[in-house]
């Protein structure tokens, strides 16, 4: 049975706004281990579920999707954002 991981999307470090923050992402856990390809040496797997990413507006919508489709799931809490406010003049001290 596939296990889904639900996590809140975080803004990229290059973004200053919060336009796409707060969305929820559903990804599937890997069921088969990665193995090196004998020809190229790249790591690969026959598990294609790890390529699926579903976005939801709320955490409840993502959990309802898992319940509706019979998927086991767990929610990963986002790391707290630490802001360090600094004046531009502090760069030249």
From TrEMBL:
Top-level taxon of the source organism: Bacteria
Range of residues in the leader sequence: none
GO cellular component: membrane
Matching InterPro entries: NADH_UbQ_FeS_4_mit-like, NDUFS4-like_sf
This protein's record includes keyword Cell membrane: no
Keyword Amino-acid biosynthesis: no
Transmembrane segments: none
Location, primary (coarse class): membrane
Keywords noted in UniProt: Electron transport, Membrane, Respiratory chain, Transit peptide, Transport
Pfam families linked: NDUS4 (PF04800)
UniProt-recorded name of the protein: ETC complex I subunit
Annotated source species: Sphingomonas lutea
Organism phylogeny: Bacteria, Pseudomonadati, Pseudomonadota, Alphaproteobacteria, Sphingomonadales
């Amino acid at each position: 049975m596939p296990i889904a991981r639900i996590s809140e999307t975080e803004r990229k470090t290059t973004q200053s706004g919060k336009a796409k923050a707060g969305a929820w992402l559903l990804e599937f856990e890997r069921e088969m281990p990665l193995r090196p390809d004998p020809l190229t040496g790249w790591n690969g797997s026959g598990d294609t579920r790890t390529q699926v990413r579903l976005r939801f507006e709320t955490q409840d919508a993502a959990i309802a999707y898992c319940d509706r489709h019979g998927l086991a799931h767990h929610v990963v809490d986002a790391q707290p954002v630490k802001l360090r406010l600094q004046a531009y003049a502090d760069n030249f001290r």
